[in-house]
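ok posting inputs for the F0G job
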Amino acid sequence: MKTIIEPFRIKTVEPIRITTREEREKLLTGAGHNVFLLDAEDVLIDLLTDSGTSAMSHHQWAAMMQGDESYAGSRSWYRFEAAVKEIFGFEHVIPTHQGRAAERLLFGITCKKGDVVPNNTHFDTTRANVEFTGAEAVDVVIPEGREPETYHPFKGNVDLEALENLIETVGADRIPMILITVTNNSGGGQPVSMENIRAVSRIARSHGIPLYMDACRFAENAYFIKLREEGYAGKTVKEIAQEIFSYADGCTMSAKKDAFANIGGFLCTNDPDLARQEKDLLILTEGYPTYGGLAGRDLEAIAVGLHEVLEEDYLRYRFASTRYLGEHISAEGVPIVQPPGGHAIYIDAKVFLPHIPPSQFPGQALACALYLEGGIRGVEIGSVMFGRKDPDTGADIPSPMELVRLAIPRRVYTQSHIDYVVEVIVEVYKRRESLRGLEITYEAPFLRHFTARFKEV
Ligand code: F0G
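and the output
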């Protein structure tokens, strides 16, 4: 087999700045040991997120020039709506400025105190938006989904027994919806099988509970199904995506992921009453229902991106480049969530830094070390992001996993960038015993990871 190459050539370049270790030491201290608080200019390879960081194609840029900026009923809106309907197949499409705006609309209308929302694993904004309504967000991923080193082809699957038990205990009337996140971002970018989606849909329908998909990385999930699930090898990725959504009643979507857009999102539903309420709220906080907080040119970029992301040459390259990073660091002994996910590699910081207890945030310590060593920015997905407070004692309850995510922006970095990332990680791994834990000196009441400040223990 020949090398899987980037299926594009580069037409515009953006210089990146190399800093010295001394500079990075000062910058990191100034940022309170929180890489979110660094200036992007001071980062060499930015793997903080794959969200909104994609390189757009010349087709997308050309479409942007055709953006119709009319307030109501613009041409661009109809192109956007047609692209979403063709792939997702839902009756009502509501544009939003990003994924969490869709979440806020959906949960704000359907959830209330005392309700419970199951999901394979809630992403941080999803959990926060559910909890903001007073409802409880419960993760029901299969046990393998919480074991970094265990191999399973569909580690994002919902634990069907746990879901049924939850419905039994809580009662269907207190469950406004069941969610499935494809791919399971917080659990390692792992896919959900079609069989599992079908089974969850059956359970949801038998209890009269709507099923919603958190669709951010739907194309990657569909491609995993094509590669790994029996009966799908001969189908197109688009057909697989259409089948996924055929089992659901609606979805939330961040177009900053699998639509190659720098901003945007949408909310879909088949329920006309809900759509009406969502549009009313949309007008109040986001914008008129034919633009929803987006410019006409953004709608154009998304309409084109949604089709480009389903191209198999792209997805083959996408998976190859993520896997390349995962395989090269794990060959050197670095513990990662196996198998590699679609959009990111997740380093298991608990195993990487066994001498740092969860209360001293090993993931955060590792994220800081990668920046110090090579100017690489990843993100902690562990007890800083998902740690809980005991409601009675206020004590920290650690997250089940302590991960550092290295998310790969779409179509942005080349193989030599990734070779450099491998070298930096392996260097930090060799001197891992010298890394120290952190303690929090400031934290916000929710989504604390964005703004918390730390000092070394
Ligand atoms: N759901 C999932 C699974 C996500 O990964 C994200 C965002 C959202 C919802 C919210 O979308 O950012 O457009 O408001 N994830 C980004 C990330 C931020 O880095 O993984 P948004």
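notes: The chain has two domains: 21-50+311-456, 58-308. The pocket of F0G is lined by residues 49, 51, 98-100, 123, 125-126, 181, 185, 214, 216, 254, 256, 265 (CB under 6 Å).
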